[in-house]
Amino acid sequence: MGKLRDKMKQDMELKHLSERTIETYLKCVENLAKHYGKPPEDIGHEAIRDFIYYLLKDKQASQAS
């Protein structure tokens, strides 16, 4: 996730997000990539939606997650 991760981190720093928020968001994208076994840039909107639904229903994650 090298270049994409670096770009995401830079974009979030430009928005003055906290370091903790940045690390949390990056970890979420990493978990998404692990779930599908492919790089985030190869995952479409529908798959992301399905992953969020999976987290909410199967993993019982909170809405805030």
Describe this structure in words.
The chain has 65 residues and is mainly α. 68% of the residues lie in helices and 0% in strands. Helix 1 (2-14) packs antiparallel against helix 2. The radius of gyration is 13 Å and the shape is globular. The model has no long low-confidence stretch (mean pLDDT 93).
Structure, briefly:
By secondary structure, this protein is an all-alpha fold. It is built from 3 helices and no strands.
List the defining traits of the structure above.
65 residues, mainly alpha, 0% strand
- Rounded to the nearest angstrom, the radius of gyration is 13 Å
Number of helices: 3
Q: Which residues sit in consecutive blocks of at least 5 with pLDDT less than 50?
A: none
Number of strands: 0
| Helix-residue proportion | 55-70%
Largest sheet geometry: none
Percentage of residues in DSSP E strands:
under 5%
Instruction: Please state the overall shape, judged from the principal axes of the Cα atoms.
Output: globular
User: How far is it from the N-terminal to the C-terminal residue, by CA?
Assistant: 21 Å
Give, in order, the helices and strands: HHH
Structural class label: mainly alpha
Calculate the mean pLDDT score and round it. Answer: 93
Outline the fold blueprint:
Elements: H1 2-14, H2 19-36, H3 45-57
Helix pairs in contact: 1-2
